[in-house]
C-alpha cells in the first residue's frame, strides 16, 4: 500500500490505460505538453495529449467523431460549468448515436470534467451539473469521492464502450488522499460503496458530499450511527445498495453540491419512494446548494453550500 | 503505433458493390463511370420522388401565427416525420462521393438521403428506414435524418444543424491518428455555416491539417430564410481564408465540375496537406420539409433554376458527347424506377421493430 | 367566449404585449416575415420580428445583452432539443447575471421553445428538457397545457423582470383548442391549476401530460375519481396545491414526456416526500419517457412515451 | 417608436465623474487628456499590483499531473479565487474606453479589472468586490470576474470565454432598436476568437450593421496555450473579412495608436456604419491567474516585452513631447498609489454581505 492523491490516482489510471491501448488519448485545453507548432503532429503521436484552441463544441464534437471511428478519447472540459457551450455534442451526439444508428456505432468516449465549489471562484466556476447528464439517456455518469475509486472508475470508464461523463471534484483534487494498492484495479460502473457502516441513518453522499458525510459521521460518532453510502456512479445507479441501507436505518439524507431543486437527490428520493415505500420512518431530506448562482464572497459561498456541520444539524433534526 | 492502429478494423468498408465510391480512382472519369454518375443522380431523384407519394401531407400553417410551429409539415402516411428532400442538388452528393474511397467517411445533415445513396447506400434499407422497419439502415431507430452505415463509412445525417461538421473533423483526426489515409467529408448547408461549430471545426482542421473536405451546399435558403438576409457576405467559400484554408466556389449543378473540385480536395486531404472548403452553388427544387409537399420558398425563382436541373444538364452533355442516346437514358431511368419499386416492396413487407429489440445496453437502466 | 387554439392563444398574447410595450420583440429562426435585405432594418422596426441566421448561441447571447439594456426579447429556439447548442447564454448568463451583478441588472427575457414528441421526428426533434432549466437557479419555467393558460402565462412571462423559459408543446399546437374569454387575462407564475377534481388519486400532469391525464381520468370516470393537477409553472412550483390534493387522495402519479430518470417527476416526488411525508398511502409513481433517445419508428416512439392508456394502467395498478 | 424608447432610462449613465469615458470627445486628445490617459493606466497597474500582495498563493502543480486542475492557483488570503491580472495590457483598455461616451456599453472577460477601471470604475468598490464585501460593485456576489456597474454601462466580466461577445452585440442591437446612438464594446482575448460565439456574433453584427466594436487583445497566450499552436493564422484581424467587416491590427502597447483606431471604429459604429474588429497586439506581464503569482508562460520572451511596457513608453513620449516632467510623473504615480491605499482601507473596513442580503427574488424558491 502507498498513499495517492485523488489527482495522482486519476493520472495513473490514464497513463496505464494509454499504455494498454494506443487508441486512448487526451484532448482538451491546457493539457500540455505540446508547446510548439512545427513538430506538433509528431509530438502528438508521442504524447497522446492534444492541446486545443478554446473551442469546446468543436473538440467535443471531434471527439465524438473520433470515438465513432475507432479511437477512445478522454476529452477534458476544464470546468464543469463550461459544458453549457457544448451540451449538444454530448447529449445529442455522443449519447444518442448508438440508438439512432440502430446499435451499429459505439461511442467509447470519456468526458472528464472538474466540478464543484469552495474555491471562491464565483458564478461561472463552481458548478456541479451531473443531473443534466443523468437526465440524458445514453450517458453513464461517474463521480468518485476518493483516490481508490477515482482510479478504478477511470479505468472502467475508459474501457466502457459508451460515453461516460467522469466528474472529478476540484476540492478533492487537493484534499483527498488515501491508501491504495500497487498496480491496477477496476471499480465497476454501477456499484455503490458503503464508505462507513451504521445503523441509525443512511447518508448518500455524492462526490465531495461523501467526504463531508464522513466528517459528519465522525463528528456524531458515539451519538448517532451514520451509514455513509457513496453511489460512485449515478448512471447506472446502484439503488439496491441504497435500499438495503435504508431498510436497515429507516432514514435517508442525500448530500450533493448541486442545487437541491432538480438535483440527483430528488432522483434518489424518487427511487427510494417508488421502490422502497414503507422503509422510511421519517421524511427523507436532500441537502444541496441553495437554489442560486454561486456568489463569490466567502461567507456567502459557505452559506450556500452544504457543509459537514449542516449535515450534522440535519441528522439531529431528522432523528430528533 | 500508427500502423498498428491503422490496420485495425475501424469502419474499413468491405468491397462496397454498387457504391458511387467505387468510381473514385478514375480521374478524369471513364465513359462507364460517367454513366454511373448519372445512375446515382437518378437513384436519388426517383427515390425521393417516391417519398413524396408516400407522405400524407397535412398543412397547419396559419398566416397570422406568431407562435406555432415554424415548419409546416405533418404526415399520417406510411412515411412520417420531417422528410427533407434533396431533389435539385444531386450533382453535389454524387460528384463528391465519386471522389471518395469506400472506406472514407461522410457526415451529413437533415437533408441526407442524397449523401447516403451517393456513398453507396442501397435503396431497400433506405426505404425501410424511412418506413421505420427493422430492416432499415438504423433498424428503424433513426429515420430520415439519421441514416447510418458503419460499413459504408456513413456517420449519419444529423438533426442538429452544424453538428455534423465537428463529427467529420473528428473522423479525419482519427484517420490521421491511425495513419489510415482515410478522408472525411462533411456535407452541410449555407445556413449551417453560421453556426459556431463551422468556425471551430474548420479552424481546428486547418490548424492540425486534418484530412477533411468541407462541402457547403449553398441552396440559397435555410428553411424559410433566404441567404440574402442571413449571410453577411454572399459567398461562404470566402470564409475559408479566415483559417488559412483554400475555399472554392463551384457550380453545384454540374456534376463533373463538382467531381473535379472534390477529387482535388480529396487528394490534397489524403496527401496530408489539410482541409478544403468547397461551396457548391445549388438549389432545392422542393419545399424545405414535408417530403416535397410543403410550400416552396420562391416559386418564381424556382422556375429559372429548374432550367439548370443537374440531371437534365448532365444527360444533355452525355448525349452531346455521344456517350449515351436518349433511348439509353430512358432505359437507365426505367431501371432505376424499378429499383425504387423493389425498395418500396422490400420495405413494406419488412416488420416493424419491437420495443424489446431496441439496441440499448442493459446497464443503462432503460426503465428505471 | 370563443374558441382559440393553443398557438392562436400564444400569438394573441405576444401581439397584445407588443402593442402594450414597444420594448417587446421576437427574435429567432424562421419567424418571418422579414424577407429581403435592403429594407431589413426598417421592416424590423415595423415588424418587431427579427429573423436570424442559424446561430443560437449568438442570438440568445444577444438577447441577453438586449434584455440587460432595456429591451424585452422573446427569443425562439425552434425545437427544445436545440438548446444543447446554447445552454451557456441561458444558464450562465441570463440566469446568473442578476445575482452576479449584486442585483443591479435584470434580464427580462422570454425564451420560447416548442418541445415534445409524438410526430415521428426522431432523436433530435422530440426532446423535453425542462428539468435542465428547473435545475438552473435564476430561471423560471413555464409549461402550459391549454390555450387559456398558454395566453395568460405568456403575458405574465413577458412582464416578468427575470428570464423565463416558456415551453410550448408541439402536439398541443395542433390538438389543443379551448373556450377562452375575449380580451386580456393573466395567469400568475407559480400557481397550479386543478384541471379536474377527484378524490381517489392525484395525477400531476406536465404539459401534454395534463392532456393525457385528463383523457385517462375520463376513461376511468365512474370507476376511479382522478384529480388532475397541472402545475403550469415548474419554477416557481406551487407545491401547496399538489400537497393539498395528495392530502385528499393519498396517491400520487406524475406524468411527463421527458425521461423518468432525473425528470421533474423526481423533483415533485421529493417535495411531496419531504413536505408531505405520511400523506401517501401507497408508493408514488412517475411516468415519463423510457430512458433512451427517441427512436423514429412509430411503434417504438409510441412505446417509449407515456400514453393515456399507460396512465389508466398505472392508476389501476397503484390503487388495485 | 425608436425615439420614445431611446428616451427611456436604459442604463444611460449619469455624469460619470473621473471616468476615462469623459475623454471621449477630444480627438486628437488635448494635453490634459493625455495626462488622464496616463493616470488611468497607472490606476490599473497599481490596483492590480496591490492585489498580488493580498493574494496568499499556494501552488498545487504536480509536473506529472495528467488529470488535475489545469490552473495552478489557490489563495487563503483576503483576496481569493481566480484573479487574472491585466498588467502589461493597460494601453488597450484605456485607449479604447477613452473613445467612449459614459453611456456606452462594455462587456469584458475573466481578465476584466482594466476594462472596468478604464470605463470609470472607482477603485474602492472594485477592491471591495475583490474582497467580497457588500460595498463592492456587485455587492460581493460577483468577484474578480463579475464586476458590473449599471451606471457605468459595465455589463460585466465573464467567466465563460467568448460569452461576452454576443452580450455586447446584443447591447448594440438594443441601442440601434432604441435609436439611442450608444455604442457597445466587447473585450476578449485571442483565445476567445476560437469560440463559436465569436463567429456567430461578429457575423450577425455585420449582417445587421450593429454599433459594436470588437476588441481582441492578442496577448499571445490563452492560459498555458501559445497562440502559435492555437491560431491557424497569425492575425485574428484577418477573420473580419469573412464577415465583410473591417479588421485592423494595432500596436496594443501604444495607447495613442489604440485610441486613434478605437475612436475611428466608435465613430463608424455610432454613425450607423456597422462594426469593426480591432486586434491589439499586446502581452500580459504576469502568469495567467493567481493574481500574478502563478508561473509566467515564457520568462525569456517576457523580458523583451517588458521593454515595451505601455506605461513606460507613454511616459517617455509625454516627456519627449515636453508635456510632463519626470517629477510630474512621479507625483502622478504617488497620487494613484495613495488612491489604491484608500481603496484597500475602504474595502477592509467594509462589511461582508449576509446570506439574507443576497439579491434574489422571493419567488424563485431559494431554499425549496
Ligand atoms: C441547431 C439547429 N437549429 C435550427 C434547426 C432547424 N433547422 C433545420 S434545417 C434548417 C435550415 C438549414 O439550412 P441549411 O443549413 O442551408 O441547409 P438546407 O436545409 O438548405 O439544406 C433549420 C433552421 C436545427 N435542426 N438545428
Ligand atoms: C468556455 C470556456 N472555456 C475555457 C475556459 C478556461 N479559461 C479561462 S481563461 C482562458 C484563456 C483565455 O485566453 P484568451 O481569450 O486569449 O484571454 P487571456 O487570458 O489571454 O486574456 C481559458 C482557457 C473558460 N473560462 N471558458
Ligand atoms: Mg440552405
Ligand atoms: Mg490571450
Spatial separation of the terminal alpha carbons of chain A: 41 Å
Number of helices, counting only DSSP H or I runs of 4 residues or more of chain B: 12
Helices and strands of chain B, in order, run as HHHEHHHEHEEEHEHEHHH
Number of strands of chain B: 7
Helix content of chain A: 25-40%
From the N-terminal CA to the C-terminal CA of chain B, the straight-line distance is 42 Å
Shape of chain A: globular
From the spread of the alpha carbons, the general shape of chain B counts as: globular
Q: Into which percentage range does the β-strand content of chain B fall?
A: 5-15%
Major sheet of chain B: size, sense and barrel closure? 5 strands, parallel
Pair with the biggest interface: B-C, 59 and 59 residues
Average of the residue pLDDT scores of chain B: 91
Order of SSEs of chain A: EHEHEHEHHEHEHEHEEEHEEHEHEHH
Mean pLDDT across all residues of chain A, rounded? 94
